[in-house]
Predict the structure of rRNA small subunit methyltransferase B.
Amino acid sequence: MSDERRGGPRQGGEGGRQRHGGRQGGGSGGRQGDRRGGSGPRRQTSRNYVALSRIVALEVLQAVRDDEAYANLLLPVRIERAKLDRADAGLATELTYGTLRRRGTYDAIIELAADRPTDRIDPDALDILRLGVHQLLSMRVPTHAAVDESVGLAHKFAPWATGFVNAVLRTVSRSTAEQWETWLAEDALDEDGRLSVLTSHPEWIIRALRAALDREGRGEEIRDLLDADNASPRVNLVALPGLGLPEPAELGTADSYSPVGFTAADPLDLVAGHEGRVRVQDEGSQLAALALSRATPVRPGERWLDLCAGPGGKAALLAAEALAGGAVLVSNEAVPVRADLVRNALAAVPSEHPVLVGDGRAIADVPESAGGYDRILLDAPCTGLGALRRRPEARWRKAPTDVPELTKLQGELVDAAIAALKPGGILAYVTCSPHTAETFGSLGGALARHAGVLEQLPTAEVVQGVANTELDLAGDPFTVQLWPHRHGTDAMFIALLRKRDVAGS
Ligand SMILES: C[S@@+](CC[C@H](N)C(=O)[O-])C[C@H]1O[C@@H](n2cnc3c(N)ncnc32)[C@H](O)[C@@H]1O
């Protein structure tokens, strides 16, 4: 860092660095008139009032940090408990998700503005600063509101750091987001470091994602992908087919690709009003389930298995498809509470659909598997690198060392699925990760171990046949890799395989 950029803000609010002092004061220009800075219910602290939405966001950040909480599970509970109205719930969500997603960038900015590494900043003060930087640089919150509310949070949660929080945020506020990004880029050692700090992704994830794009000859799309990971995904819905619902286009705006998917102005009202037949589900997940159910015409009496079914999103769609075609779906899940979620998800489909609780690696041994299955979905446990926009803290929790353990499990689950398939039966191997070790690596391992037994099916043709409009797919014909930046879906990987009939076909 140049001398000009050393020296950090002095306690008392003066930034001290000319280079970071470019933006004068707060609330000027387009920022004036935005009401997000100060609306909503407030709680009095020792010194002032703080909007409850910010308290909720900070408490979720603390739980993510200290208790390994999942923001997408905890935040709705905290919003409910704080009785936030729709607008404040939206603000709390944007604050929480945006701050968690952009943490890498914000930490780098805070390090510059505070002139100290983040591991030398009190964790509560650091979370307050991250929330403040998000408001200053990524939301249209007026400077005075972002700083005052952050100082108010500091009075309540980190009273020893109020002056520090005030000073750092005032320094941040004096320069634009673009100016900070220029400084971050100048400090980066190489291209991956630059992308890492600008798009808030760990470098190992950038390398993994680029490798997956490179396999398609589309490595140049990496920046678009990383940016898409930082955008809030649309709330996408599925209308379970065959259950008497209007067409997706009558319920809302039909998806581009999934024939059973749509978006709507009031998605949660629609979910609440249709007793489980309308569900929140990513469009890519819908295509993955339909790739299996529609790969070939369904023969009445077929037996299907969802091997790793929790929490049951794809199982619900498969159960509806099975009911329509006269097939039976069995679901399996290793974790009992997640098996309960599968039961809930299946409740809307009026048919018998057993839910087993157990390790999928032993599925061939359970009595329900006697006679085998005609179709199996293996939506494998994976790093989830394809759904980073939905799980905002995930990118900071995962590590490259997770990958070998997961690919080993994926291989064992594929082997179990093949053992449980009938000759001629179809396996859909699916991951919500594009990491090539988890996609082509696990798939290639299975093809090698089961040479002569497994046949790859034209997955791309099947998925294109299911889709409303043609997908821009760039891989080989036997696999489909979907992408957030290209398709607006999670980065689902789908490969269809057939177990050869040893008698000859
Ligand atoms: C990617 S998720 C499946 C998502 C699901 N198909 C859906 O659409 O809602 C993988 C699931 O596999 C479960 N799982 C992990 N290890 C397993 C195992 N050995 N046997 C069965 N299920 C397992 C996890 O608990 C998790 O619920």
About this structure: The chain has two domains: 3-183, 281-499. The two ends are 67 Å apart (CA to CA).
